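ugh ok so i messed up the first submission bc i forgot one of the chains. this is the corrected input, ALL of the components this time, i swear. 546 residues overall. if the numbers dont match what u have on ur side tell me asap before i send this to the collaborators (the ones from the other lab, u know who)
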Amino acid sequence: MPVYRITLAYDGGGFQGWQRQAGAARTVQGVVEDALRRLAGGAAVTVAAAGRTDAGVHAIGQVASFELPRDMAPAAVQAALNGLLPADVRALEAAFAPPGFHPRRSAVAKLYRYVLDTGPVRLPTRRLLAGHVPWSLNLGAMEEAAALYLGRHDFASLASSGSSVKTTVRTVLRSTVTAIEPSRDEGGRDPVWGIPDGQPLSTLVYEVEADGFLRKMVRSMVGGLVAVGRGTLTVDGLRAALLRRDRRAWPAPLEPCGLTLVRVSYPPGRVLE
Amino acid sequence: MPVYRITLAYDGGGFQGWQRQAGAARTVQGVVEDALRRLAGGAAVTVAAAGRTDAGVHAIGQVASFELPRDMAPAAVQAALNGLLPADVRALEAAFAPPGFHPRRSAVAKLYRYVLDTGPVRLPTRRLLAGHVPWSLNLGAMEEAAALYLGRHDFASLASSGSSVKTTVRTVLRSTVTAIEPSRDEGGRDPVWGIPDGQPLSTLVYEVEADGFLRKMVRSMVGGLVAVGRGTLTVDGLRAALLRRDRRAWPAPLEPCGLTLVRVSYPPGRVLE
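and heres the new structure output, hopefully the right one now
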């Protein structure tokens, strides 16, 4: 039976996360498996994914794989899936998976992005796709804090309670905060973000790539950056909180709507093009 | 009694348009008037707006005015309103209105923006904030078509059926199509729009400013531009359809979710700062 690898995009706002759950919870895995079951003529299809995104978290580069009971061209699988899926999930591409491919176990890195708006009023049209804090933040201090995460660390301070992972050590390959200057036309309006005239709104984008992530780890990382950016914690204080390996010492995680799984990387040769 | 002028932003997706309706329809006017009634200690407050946006249409610069039975500082009105309003409507600023001010009758121009994504797959995270067509479009032809709308014309071909306006003549002051090149970082990913690697998605922004608009006029203007951009109509054919003053000759309007009321302009001196 052919094994397919697909790239998925979804709006996490309507889902209780990726992973199928007992009961009536709407999950991304659930709607994709339901669509594939119809494509497979009623046979159950199990889908594995690279990242088990939490409730409310978006994706533009989730990678998933599954077997189908009949041979179809990947482009036909993609088109058929998009005809069966609800509008808040889309297959962006499809390919045959190479032998032994597993979207999570074969992955060498994942890239997440957190978009954070700052400013006194939360814009209605952005409230579902960006986190928001009402304070202005010190970008320089946040950049320094983001660099703390780089390299191999025990991230036990950032682990969600009640999770039962074997190790909380992860290696962070990239950790950058960028202030987005919206491209504004002559009139001072902003055609990209849709930020109104004269609003002191600004947007920060945090990108982090690692060999793996603990549950809520990125949102906790951003929580740490915001604490430093506001000045409620120094960079040294954040470093000490990281070394303490105690999640009670760590600032609260930010809301899920600002987070997107952007890309999953595989070693060359593991993915057929 | 003091009269206030406020600037409103809203996500139109959850509203049956601006205008209060009989029955249970959720409208922007309805939720703002309900919030102001609570602010006014139970007294009914009527709100006038510059533009009666349709169901699904967003705003970042709607202007509204109302009287309150007691004197409050404008900043306090704004803060109190934002505490009472649902998250999909926000007051961005507030001021005392000058004598005789009416948000629609005093306005000299309104600026609308339509954001249109093109490409084979509609991205889930953008589906509520941009229109979408699956075709690639000829930007040069669309620019030429957009210039047709400039100046004083009878827009009867673009008027919604069953509307009873006195005149369908309007003067268009600005009409521009812009292709947005998302700012991409070294990795080729796009931190602003969140467009995934390698997707042939592109975004067009149409901005139109006029002394007034007929119902569905902007969405019909974009319908005309898309017909020309696809090649189903020539620029000359669109000009002929405009001159015919018959709405059956005009391409269908685009969906409302791509449209935003950006700014309302008043003559100098009509708005107290």
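quick check: The first helix of chain B runs from residue 28 to 39. that seems consistent at least. Helices of chain B lie at 28-39, 74-84, 139-148, 217-230, 235-244.
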